[in-house]
Each structure stands twice: as structure tokens, then as C-alpha cells.
Amino acid sequence: MCVLSSSLAAAGPSQDGRPVRETDLPRPVSDYGRSKLLAEEEALRHKNEFPVVILRPSAVYGPRDRDMYELFRWAVRGLTLELTGGERYINPCFVEDLGAVMLLAAERETPSGSIYFVAENRSYSWSEFRKALLTTGGVRALNIKIPYAAAYLIGLASELASLFTSRPALTNRQKVREASQKYWVCDLTMMENELGFKAQHTLQQGLEITWKWYRDNKWLCS
Fold it and tell me: What is the reported pLDDT for 168?
């Protein structure tokens, strides 16, 4: 079985809060999401030549991750950032659960071309995620709300700075566009029914493991 690790970004966010289903028309909002969708389409062209299964994990976090790591790093410094415009929701995906379902998908006999979302079967608002992040890390942080226009300019400035430093931008305009979406939530029925998998880690458990790994490996100073 060929397992392609794609992303919820290939499907795009929910437009109305209803969890996105595998059968919904993909609506990616970034080049990253569009590139993942193109990879899916290429893999599906060969589904009759060899068995293919596509996994779409949502917001992945955990040890060794460098994207979500920025949230931990800023939290230690006493700051969290939030876009204005109300609550936003995500289905988080702990990396160990993603690894487990990838192994399962490689072993399980499923129709070639099957697509499955992968995440914890619960959505969290930013307020809930932030509270869990600070509580499990034993830190306090001031929450700063930033208008979309200001965040867009920060993303642009980061991109321009990366041209002179030859280092990847910590953020960019497309990440800001992704972050501005209200609902990054997905329906996990097919993963649970066809693969027989349910996430084994709650957000709190995953965050506790991640904080410990970052600190043990000196990624965080406190």
C-alpha cells in the first residue's frame, strides 16, 4: 500500500462550521494546500496500477515539530498572538497518532484511492487551545489581538527579510491567510469506521508530551 501524507489544507477550511468531509469539493486557500491537492491528484492517477491511500492530517503538533513550536516559544516569552474577528476552531493532530494511523493505513486493506482525515475527534477554539497550552506548560502569557491587515504586513515584512538573510520566513502572507480562516475542522467518521482508528491522545496529553520534549532537548529554556 502506498500511503501519501497530504493535509487538511488540500481540502481547505469549512465555510460554515460543518466539519469538512472527504467527499466535499476541495477549496484550498494557500499555495501549500494547492500543492498538496496536486500531489493527491497525481497519486490518484495511479490508483489502478497500485493501491493508494491518502491521509489528510490537520494541525499537526508534537516533538520535533518546528511550526507549532513557535507557539510554545512565544508562550515561554510571555506572549500569545490572536487575529481579531472572533473565535477560530481547529481539530489538532498529535504526531504520534499520525504515525500510528500511517502504519495502520499501510497494513489495512482499503479501496485504492481512499482519502481519510486524521485528527483528534474534537474541535477546540483558540481560547481553549491557548488555555491548554499555558496550563500544560506552567507558563503565563499576555494575549495580543492583531488585526488581519497588520498580520498581513508582518507576513510581508518577514518574507522580505528572508530575502536578505537566506533563512526561511517565520511567517508569511499565506500562513496569515490560513490562520484567518474560522473553521479548520474535519469529519473523522471514515477514519474511525474504515481504518478503525481513533486518536489516542487528547490535546492536554499531547501538549504535556510536547512541552517535556522541547524542554528536555533544550529547545525551550524554561
Answer: 67
